[in-house]
Design goal:
The chain is of the alpha/beta class. 39% of the residues lie in helices and 24% in strands. The protein has helices at residues 20-29, 61-71, 86-98, 124-135, 144-151, 161-174, 216-229, 234-252, 268-272; strands at 5-15, 33-44, 54-56, 75-80, 100-108, 113-114, 117-118, 139-140, 178-181, 190-197, 200-207. The strands form 2 sheets. The protein has a 9-stranded mixed beta sheet with strand order 3-2-1-4-5-8-9-10-11, with helices on both faces. A two-stranded antiparallel sheet has the order 6-7. The longest helix has 19 residues, at 234-252. The mean pLDDT is 95.
């Protein structure tokens, strides 16, 4: 087996099953060496918890990268999630340009918005910087809201295939080579992902589960990255990620005390069987 090394750059929410506490175990379970670069450390994630703490690590990033440069540490892929500021985006662009090895991949989850709105910490200036990062990416993994902000399209909850196609083309026009658009729903009770690459567009539909769970986007993107690194093509990786995310949501459903994320850990063994 060709042993790959991925660097994932996003925050650590110590409690809450999202960001790096999801990416590290999931990508590792796929059989891929996973290196982390925290953008911030939070006591919990910000959805539903009160009084959480947050320590920004922006100023620590250059020293970490300099050390890796001196040690000759390089990566086969980069995967970015939640980034806290425009300055961090600039640092990530530099990392893309300097720390890759071979034919390395750059995968960007532009985690900044959902349900038609930007997250409270972000504004249009941040969107413009994220567009720059997505332009440098090989693959972007946005949801519908994020795609709308970056392409200037109106956010809709009811749409057709032409609308989705327009979002994908808009992202590719920015510079992203391939697009995996999540949360694409054409019918009640169903949702899916649209993959747009040089070979055209492929839609993978699956069941929509009504229980909303924080961190499922991170679960999806992490499985997707792991599958890519294990040699799956982009469509197969998108399907594996979708199926695993749905399984995690279903496994968590009914546990009212587990409202803050999905119980993905018991299913990691099943995930590993894909490889």
């Amino acid at each position: 087996m060709d042993y790959k090394r991925v660097l994932t750059i996003q925050d650590i929410s110590c409690m809450g099953q999202c960001s790096l506490t999801v990416a590290l175990p999931i990508i590792s379970a796929c059989g891929v060496e996973t290196v982390i670069l925290p953008s911030a450390v939070l006591s919990t994630h910000t959805a539903g918890f009160k009084g959480f703490t947050c320590r920004d690590l922006t100023e620590d990033i250059p020293a970490i990268v300099d050390h890796w440069q001196r040690e000759g540490i390089r990566f086969d892929a980069f995967y970015t999630g939640y980034l806290g500021s425009a300055k961090q985006i600039d640092y990530v662009k530099d990392i893309f340009a300097t720390l890759g090895r071979g034919d390395y991949l750059k995968i960007v989850d532009p985690a900044m918005a959902d349900n038609g709105k930007l997250y409270p910490a972000f504004d249009q200036g941040y969107v413009e910087k994220m567009k720059e990062l997505c332009a440098a990416a090989d693959i972007v993994v946005p949801n519908i809201t994020e795609a709308c902000y970056m392409t200037g399209n109106e956010y809709r909850t009811v749409y057709d295939r032409e609308y989705v196609r327009r979002l994908c083309i808009g992202l590719q026009t920015l510079g992203a080579k391939k697009v995996v658009l999540t949360g694409v729903s054409y019918a009640s009770g169903r949702t899916g992902v649209m993959v747009a690459d040089g070979d055209g567009e492929t839609y993978y539909e699956h069941e929509f589960l009504p229980n909303s769970c924080h961190g499922t986007g991170d679960v999806y993107a992490s499985v997707f990255v792991g599958a890519l690194m294990r040699g799956r093509d982009i469509v197969s990786a998108a399907r594996i990620a979708a199926d695993f995310t749905v399984a995690c949501i279903r496994y968590t459903a009914g546990d009212v005390e587990h409202w803050y994320g999905v119980k993905f850990e018991p299913l990691l063994g099943d995930l590993g069987k894909n490889f």
